[in-house]
Amino acid sequence: MRIAELSRVSGVPVPTIKYYLRENLLPPGELTSPNQASYGDLHVRRLRLIRALVDLAGVPVAQVKEVLEGLDSDTMSLHDQIGRAHRAITSHRQLTSCTPDTEAAAAQVDALLASRKWTVDSDAPALTTLTETIATMRSLGQEHLADLVNAYADAVEKFTDLEIAAVTANHPTPDQIAESVIIGTILGETLISSLRLLAQESISAHRWHQ
Amino acid sequence: MRIAELSRVSGVPVPTIKYYLRENLLPPGELTSPNQASYGDLHVRRLRLIRALVDLAGVPVAQVKEVLEGLDSDTMSLHDQIGRAHRAITSHRQLTSCTPDTEAAAAQVDALLASRKWTVDSDAPALTTLTETIATMRSLGQEHLADLVNAYADAVEKFTDLEIAAVTANHPTPDQIAESVIIGTILGETLISSLRLLAQESISAHRWHQ
Questions:
Q1: What is the ipTM of this complex?
Q2: Which long-range contacts (CB under 8 A, 24 or more apart) does B70-77 make?
């Protein structure tokens, strides 16, 4: 199909498609003449993926590009691809200061990783975010929230296992598994977050709404 | 204390404190002379809360202001305050189009709410996000991820109950409960998200990393 039809089918405006082509987020079409290219289902599918990451998950285009480069690479391991997806949805952050709260939080996180036998890179951005969040909860006098970390980790471990099982059971090839893991990682976040807000709203409606 | 000391104690630069004062995110200090004000523990505490919401949770300043207005209001119900916190961490979104995937997703969400007896406002932003996310997973050929929604909801329900219990058990006054619920709502999101990434990284390291 030509670019106009690709736009119609995918719902993505032509100038946006051209921008994605220039930025190499979308592979070039097959040239049918010096000025015209033809696009296929692969392009429709890729455009849907880009829009999901940009519009729904709010991932910046530069990070989407990194994730897609991982997907398109023949040599990058799935583990490294997941690392790229993780960086796309977390911001790099330095521990801003070393207070008694951050020290207590770092100790709590170390204990958590050890007790759960989680193997994570010591410079994983999520590790800093977790430590800072716990430290902040403590500094705001919300120790009882910081103390829920283990209960959260129980739940999180359970559904992460389910995700991995669903992804590997439903996809025969490594490429398909990779794409599914990336989508699950990024959109799963949106799913869990919106479910949590709905659960909270419902509990709050029953408890605190006159 | 004077503004310079408030800056030192809180770690927030003086110009930023002045900006928060102008924007009414921070209540004015007590005037000790026409050009000088004195600040107290309440200001330190409020600055910490603002920085947590802005820096850690990435909430825009305008939305932080809404959340704080809710907290400072004597008449707003806790339920409405929670509504403000929810809007602060979700973007308003319209369902972009009506495809078979969005219709199937809407039906799945309706069934979910009915089976769990969740009472939520029909224009809750999280409802649109949830529906769009499920529809997008389907359109990307990831039905098996969309089918995990019930398992996610089980887990989410469990830890939301724990959060509410922790918050109400540990705070005697409605004002304190409100602040804790808001912090739990917004920072809890950061906590769960970072735990999930760490759990994924660990599972991936064991499965896919050579």
A1: 0.87
A2: B70/B178, B70/B182, B71/B175, B71/B178, B71/B179, B71/B182, B72/B27, B77/A208, B77/A209, B77/A210
